[in-house]
Amino acid sequence: MEVESATQCFSEANLLSRNSFISVFKGTVRDGSLVAIRSINISSCKNEEVVDFLNGVKLLSLMSRKNVGSIFKILQNVHT
């Protein structure tokens, strides 16, 4: 998956920030663009926190960023 490749399998060296259930990693995608990738640890959060996370991704996708929309589709596929 490109997300794992971009972050070098979510390497600690690429970790930008972390709280109790969300981590943000820097990465580089195939075309050389730098990206920030938010990852949620579903096993350590409540259902409403997962909903909040997905709502945040939806909000970003409304900002007319084609890659954010693509990431949201990946998240839906992984978590449904």
Automatic annotation (TrEMBL):
InterPro entries: Kinase-like_dom_sf
Gene3D superfamilies: Phosphorylase Kinase, domain 1 (3.30.200.20)
Protein name per Swiss-Prot or TrEMBL: Uncharacterized protein
Organism annotation: Brassica carinata (Ethiopian mustard)
Classification lineage: Eukaryota, Viridiplantae, Streptophyta, Embryophyta, Tracheophyta
